Amino acid sequence: MDTYYNPDDLGKFGDMGKESPELWNAFMKYYAKVFEAGALSEREKALIALAVAHAVQCPYCIDAYTRASLEKGSNREQMTEAIHVAVALRGGASLVHGVQMRNTAEKISF
Amino acid sequence: MAPAQNPVLPFDDALKSCGLFPLTAEGVSILQVNLGRRCNQSCEHCHVDAGPGRREMMSDGVMEKVLSLLARENFSALDLTGGAPELHPRFRELVSRAVSMGRSVFDRCNLTVLFEPGMEDLPAFFVRHRVAVYASLPYYRREETDAVRGRGTFDKSVRALELLNAHGYGMEGTGLELHLVHNPAGAFFPAPQAALEAQFKVELEKKHRVFFNRLFTITNMPIARFDSFLQKSGNREAYLTRLAGAFNPAAAKGVMCRNMISVSWDGHLYDCDFNQMAGLKVNHGAPDRLDDWSRKLLERREIMTAIHCYGCTAGSGSSCGGETAP
Ligand code: SF4
Ligand code: SF4
Asked: What is the ipTM of this complex?
């Protein structure tokens, strides 16, 4: 293995069903259901997935949901805005922990 | 460049897997006529390799044969394509004679051609002959459209849509049909047709105040210029594999070649415009020239298939009339 991430590995995702097919099948059924149109459209769900893929920094998911977003009719402007939502949340989540820093500093300082 | 190998099963094997082999026609209801390769544009996805430099155009002799066929045979529609069919010097004559014979006419229009010299009368001509206009517009934004069709195309296309709307096309109650045709701007599949149509309607109305009737989505076919793009960009294997992986028997059942014949600028017969570009004439005992036309042999002919047929059978299917298995 040259790198931890290999694009071909995405095609081997199904191998994860080999040791515990029951859990795998249940997961896949659930996964497929989640992405069906419901109160949100398939396009909106793909955009959420794209944003989450960036938040969890999964290259497989970024690959898959870039394509999925385009194939549901989104454009790069919408996709870029979706990523900024993830970025804002990640940044905001770090920043809001600054309050803990302040609390701790407060507690141990004169 | 070395000829590309195909990474997927032959298309006939996919047909066999669902009992559709051999694929046969069920009639010849639509006559599609390709008037030539000349076009005022040179789009990235063009399966015809059309462009301003192309000289192949239908001769007077072939045109007469088309007209005589239209006069003696019944077709539900005459579907005109190219290149830009309107650039053919006898385009108007063909349309008006077909209409006077009672045939409906579809024009596959790239929109920008309306601004070419000598085309000023086209919208009014379309109205008089109640031609149904199938206009290509890859996307509702400038960025994607210009990436496919060249800089400035989007703005010009919007102006053409305004012009057609002003003539009543795409407007409620006129019965003048203006449909848009969407191709993805790259090596990926089109969005579901109904959802994309809704997006196009909202965006084009909101930002540009232009209107249309239906949107049809077409999968990019791995032939000619788009195939070169696939090869150059290293996407060919993945694209073909995905097309084949998305093979849908219901879409295969509804492929457009089962109900049409495509005539080339030089008077040969093909199962569809894609086979025309791949050089695959009608065969399996059916005549491949206008001169030898036989409805009996053509309407039950076995269709010539190739790897690009996967483009018609992926997912919800694809044809000149959009999805075939929504
Ligand atoms: S896709 Fe249509 S408009 Fe574009 S070059 Fe080909 S024939 Fe012309
Ligand atoms: S490419 Fe042509 S011959 Fe092949 S399935 Fe599509 S319409 Fe039929």
From this structure: 0.82
